[in-house]
Design brief:
Helix content: 40-55%
Strand content: 15-25%
Number of domains: 2
Order of helices and strands: EEEHHHHHEHEHEHEEEHEEHEEEEEH
Number of helices: 11
Number of strands: 16
CATH architecture of the largest domain: 3-Layer(aba) Sandwich
Distance between the termini: 31 Å
Largest sheet: 7 strands, mixed
Strand order of the largest sheet: 6-5-4-7-10-15-16
CATH superfamily of the largest domain: Translation initiation factor eif-2b, domain 2
CATH topology of the largest domain: Rossmann fold
Shape: globular
Length: 349
């Protein structure tokens, strides 16, 4: 992605967001200055992706504090508004973590909150670069082939989903920088087409060869031997390594296991929720039925039919070959490094 395009940044009096609902047709920004606009932007996916949501949550507290001072709110109303931001999307743990990190700075004033939120953003960019390097090293070492690789990815875990560079796509970008990418298969990611609209746009901007495929084609692509590795992001990872990611990820994981190729999950350590023992305890967001039942404003299903529209699924740890964070690589499926025990060891490395 072009270096002059920023997904999220503080604009002095509000949060400036690249409106991802308009991509790839238009590159436009929205500046949010109140809690209603921020919650709406989060829920409508103007800003999305677990790391970016963490940054939005941190700056969101600053927005609330500014609005509370401007409109004369008491502490109870201010705290209720912060809770709305924190709960705007329940599956991605980073959103709540970003909010919680800056809460202690409220007593020091809005400038202190903004400074800590900026630290969250800066750490994410640095961490993404490390994820890219660790992931590329591990993949090249694991595959042991001296040729460019065919990589499959699902949804969008690039610069658009983070404060910069990307997690899963950060790994791809690092591989590309080393001359080791032949082709990227970008799943379209139904029903909102984050892969077709966002991932393909990022790859095209970066000059990385890619094709878009239907989600249902991905397992066949893997089983036909057309992909060497699948690299995806995550919205929450349980203590045992179970991983929540965009709906459709489980199908990739099963196909990877059947084909004997690695499934690599790339995510910042903040996505690991040690308070959640396993995937069964991860809340799964369900989104509006209209996303499935209609397209372009026209209904595509019979009028009397409803929809089931979970935004995420959970891949069991036994199917996750490796978890790449900014602290290193955990080989989850091997059972040698569950997240709860691995944190200290990985940080030492």
């Amino acid at each position: 992605m072009s270096s002059d395009v920023r997904t999220i940044e503080w604009a002095g009096d509000g949060l400036r967001l690249l409106d991802q609902t308009l991509l790839p047709a238009r590159v436009e920004y929205a500046t949010v200055r109140d809690v209603d606009a921020l919650v709406d932007a989060i829920r409508r996916l103007v800003v999305r992706g677990a790391p970016a949501l963490g940054v939005a949550g941190a700056f969101g507290v600053a927005i609330v504090v500014r609005q509370a001072a401007r409109e004369g709110w008491d502490d109870a109303r201010r705290d209720a508004a912060i809770a709305r931001v924190r709960a705007a999307r329940p599956t991605a743990v980073n959103l709540a973590a970003g909010v919680d990190r800056v809460l202690p700075f409220i007593a020091e004033g809005v400038d202190a909150v903004v400074a800590e939120a900026q630290a969250v953003l800066d750490e994410d960019v640095r961490g993404n670069r490390a994820i890219g390097a660790f992931g590329a090293d591990w993949i090249l070492g694991r595959l042991g082939v001296d040729r460019p690789l065919r990589v499959l990815t699902h949804c969008n875990a690039g610069a658009l989903a983070t404060a910069g560079w990307g997690t899963a796509l950060g790994v791809v970008r690092e591989l590309h920088g080393r001359g080791r990418v032949e082709l990227v298969y970008a799943d379209e990611t139904r029903p909102l087409l984050q892969g077709a609209r966002l991932t393909a746009w990022e790859l095209d901007q970066a000059g990385i060869p890619c094709v878009v495929q239907a989600d249902a084609a991905a397992p066949s692509t893997i089983l036909r031997g057309l992909a060497d590795v699948a690299v995806i992001g995550a919205d929450r990872i349980a203590a045992n390594g179970d991983t929540a990611n965009k709906i459709g990820s489980v199908g990739l994981a099963l196909a990877c296991a059947a084909a004997g190729i690695p499934l690599v999950v790339a995510a910042p350590w903040s996505t690991v929720d040690l308070a959640v023992p396993d995937g069964a305890a991860i809340p799964i967001e369900e989104r509006p039925a209209e996303e499935v039942l209609a397209w372009g404003g026209a209904r595509t299903a019979p009028g009397g039919v409803d929809a089931f529209n979970p935004a995420f699924d959970v891949t069991p740890a036994r199917l996750v070959t490796a978890l790449v964070t900014e602290t290193g690589v955990l080989e989850v499926a091997a059972g040698t490094a569950p997240c709860r025990r691995a944190r200290r060891r990985c940080r030492r490395e």
